[in-house]
# Entry
Amino acid sequence: MNDPAHDSSSRQRMLPSIVRDEPDWFVVNKPIGWHSVQERVTDGDPTIEQWIGEAFPDQRSLPDSGLVHRLDHSTSGCLLVAKNVQMHETLRENFSAGFGGWSIEKKYLALVARGLQAQGEFALYFSNRHKGSAKVTVKEIGARAELGKCRWTVMRAGRSHGDSTDPHACDLVEIDLIGPGRRHQIRAGLSSLGHALAGDSLYRGAPLDARWNDGHAALHAWKLTISGTIVESPRPAWAHGLR
# Structure
């Protein structure tokens, strides 16, 4: 008999929740296995856009039900949502560039292959491959519109012994996403440095026991700081033990 905790349908029962509600915006905690918005081709998994529209019908009049940005299907954590058209435009602009005092900081948690430098950063260029490719190409030189920057700190070094599929065998890393995010920026960027995310089979990450992250890459949008207001999403099970 299949373990229901590992059944793909179980992740649909993990519903989104509101972690911060302000007059002009709110933040949704996105579970893994949910798409941010409806894509042209989908696998039948639910979308945050639809969930927002059903829970808050007034949001349907806004683009993407007010979603300011997106997270990958496999990524959990904070999604920023505007409550009106003007704020949607303002936050989208500031999410990329930080205009007009609306500075927005983005912090992630990830499990990566052991041995990453304790602190570091990268500035790499990310471009789509051929049409239909699931992966992105990472280069050291490219167009300005492809530039992606990250800064990281290792919060817990991985163990060199024991079960290789356990989260404690990986480095637990806090990552600052600097400026506009590029597609698969953290996943592809760290993989290009030889430290792919645990569970990220697309970028040759080491397997992670499915009970920890339901077979997905271990990446979590942990915190948003929106004009000085810090919003935090609860850490996933694999990130517990963070100092």
Observations:
- Residues 85-97 form the longest helix (13 residues).
